[in-house]
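Limitations
The structure tokens in this dataset are predictions for the assembled complex, not deposited experimental models. Users should treat interface geometry with appropriate caution, especially where small molecules or nucleic acid strands are included. An illustrative entry is reproduced here so readers can see what is and is not provided.
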Amino acid sequence: MKATAIANSNIAFVKYWGKKDEFSNLPMNPSISMTLDENLSTKTTVEFSDKYEEDVLILNSEKYSDSKLVRVSNFLDKMRKLSGVIYHAKVVSENSFPTGTGIASSASGFAALAAASSKALGLNLSDKELSGLARQGSGSACRSVYGGFVVWDDEFSIQFKDELFWPELRDILVIVDKDEKKISSRDAMKHTVQTSSLYKKRLQALLDIIRRVKAAIGSKDFQSLAHEIMNESDSLHACIKDTVPKVEYLNEASYRIIELVKKLNSVSTIAAYTFDAGPNAHIITLEQYVPGIKKEMLKLFGVQLIESRPGRGIRYSEEHLL
Ligand code: PMV
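Predicted assembly:
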């Protein structure tokens, strides 16, 4: 009872922030993302067997017995319940990007885990069903089940356009901080929903924003898309700062990147910045601008860059990790 799956990370243009329900990760708001390519992926092998006395988690060659294992084990419990199989499992997982880069891998991680564990258990699930399962591991993971541009509104995600639709679009991840985030998105979201007054305004505006982002992607209107992406990132981080106790994910280097992108856009818009729950920036741009943007970023910070195009959804492999 063994299977291996690969899933890529995704970057949200309109971000999920807030849960309707703590246990099932149903979102307070719709989100839309671009699935990234193999440069930001996770490969996971899961084996269920009576030879394991407990669940085992090996991540990038390191054995975990902390909260990471608990989270994976809770997820495996859902899979066991669904299949009727009671065996414990060994999960071996590897990221394509270097470890210790501070990049969150829960989106690619839980999408790969949902796919590998359901295949290992012989459950023949549709992508829609897999997205519903991945969501329960980590909200943003449900969007990594599909390639290209993906919308998530409720229980499942759906593909809006596939990865071949806009092949010139690029994401440059600018790593400025390699530490794990100090406050989890789970906790920060909860506090924002409970205490931020800006958050209520954000929720009211989001349906229109999603509509505009879909229109910009559909017509490949980069300028409009870039403005929506930057406004959305600013709006989210304003809400996060408006939270009691105040949370701040961006650091000095993040603000320098924002300034640099504004400078690069002074003649015409060639790049958009967006930040998740951390200080590392994602720069969305077009293929033709990548060399110039990379050069500028490296000049300023000597940071680590990972470039990615619109990528595929989950796939399976016979080359197991165990
Ligand atoms: O998937 P989670 O629960 O780690 O939430 C991540 C939320 C953001 O990355 C900040 C936004 C998003 O939609 O991906």
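Some entries come with short summary sentences. For this one: The CA atoms of residues 216 and 224 lie 6 Å apart.
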